[in-house]
Fold:
Amino acid sequence: MVHNFNAGPSILPKSVFEEAAQAILNYNNSGLSILELGHRTPTFQAVMDEAQALLKELMHLDSDHEVLFLHGGASTQFMQVPMNLLDDKETAAYSDTGVWSSKAIKEAKLFGKVEMVCSGKESNYTSIPKDFAVPNDAKYFHITTNNTIYGSQWHKIPTTSNVLVADMSSDILSREMDFNAFGLIYAGAQKNIGAAGVNVVVVNKNILGKVKRAIPTIMDYRNHIKDGSMLNTPPVFAVYVCMLTLRWLKAQGGVAAIEKINDQKAALLYKEIDNNPLFKGTIATEDRSKMNVCFVMTDPALEESFLKFSKERGIVGIKGHRLSGGFRASLYNALPLNSVAFLVDTMQEFTKMHD
Ligand SMILES: *Cc1c(COP(=O)(O)O)cnc(C)c1O
Structure:
């Protein structure tokens, strides 16, 4: 048995793999594969409609918020957001909490002014900045709710009068939140929603249409809203896998129910990291991510050997990002509690061998 802690693309529910595999061979007994259906057919339209409806339901979205399934991954949103929301003489506020927010800042600078209101850089991104002010005239304030590479997370979403924009790629649907408080949310699907190749955008339609620049057709959110996320051929299979994963999440009891399990998973692993003398966490306790748990060994010389030991036991994907080193265990929604228990057991077994 394999325990998959990959950071992304990452584990999805087993039932989703089985249904998706069947749909490739024969979708709903139609004699056709999901891969050969026209995207404008009623059959695929039903998939898109259900995926959008499920996301609205699971996030409790109001009627101002539209759900889009777009191409290009979260990285495309780094530029599509400022292109749609920021004029070149205007300012957007950004928080810098890690690699992904730095990348978002770089792209925003191509479209307008960026004020970096806080940065965790000096502490090597080991905590979430607390004391900062967002200028009133900033068109929007951008945060990365979960920092996938460093393993930190905003546990308290800042309250601001500005339009709030969030990259939620690695923690969307993992915890309850007032999603309607956001002007725009984006997330690459490959971490918590489905298969790579599609990107979820939730946007309050009232914030659109305010910039003066000409926006290329395919980049303008309003066109995607108007065409129901079918402006051009959507990534049909990736949308289908999202739909299945969202169905699964609803069947688990929705976001509130999965959050309880996510809390248990994170608590179990952090407890071992804190209690086991061989391991230690890398992030300020109050800012630790419940999705990406980063840790190192007190004796770095043992890291290679722990990695090998866990690999032999079927643990996959715990090697840390090259920037932060050590280990990173990603505990996305689909990862079962027993995989975390198995990782903890592996840490304990390893410790016994090195006493
Ligand atoms: C993975 C990730 C991205 C990049 O996503 P792509 O779909 O590969 O562009 C951006 N932001 C965060 C927070 C991520 O975890």
Notes: DSSP finds nine helices and 14 strands in the chain. The domain at 255-353 is CATH 3.90.1150.10 (Aspartate Aminotransferase, domain 1). The mean pLDDT is 97.
